[in-house]
Design a protein that fits this description.
With 163 residues, the chain is of the alpha+beta class. It is built from four helices and four strands; from the N terminus they run ααααββββ. 40% of the residues lie in helices and 24% in strands.
Length: 163
Amino acid sequence: MVKAQMMTLEGIMGALLLFLVTYTLFQSSLVISPLWSEFSDAQLKQIAYDSLRVLDGNSSQNDSLEGMLLSLDSSFIPNQDFINSLEKLIRPANYRIEIYWVSDSEIEKAVLVDNKPTPEAVAASRIVVLKNGDLNPSSPFYKSGAKSYTPIVVEVRLIVWRA
């Protein structure tokens, strides 16, 4: 009789142990993954952020964000060096570039590259701080009468989508 009770207890303990192992296995291996379209959007968003970060790195060059903003005039056409560098970074995606800044207590907006985005487009932005003294008087950001060290904050927004 004692032997039968021991085997019953071993069976119950074995079943509980298997249940515990199975529960732990399923609980720890639960993977929540994004839908396929969200995954591609995340990739595009990362490409846009990385592209802006790279272009913000070398500030004295014409192909940088700061260099492009310093060379802008009232036509709001970015220089070709900047466009070439950007297209190398985000190829094969399509893109649109917008800039925002504050002028006389109003938010101004300009579209530098006016491609029409699709509904799946994602946006990334980067803030660039310019000094009034570094700007040409023909620059749309230039403030006459302001000190040369007066900061001008410009948001560069890059919108990308798959072509």
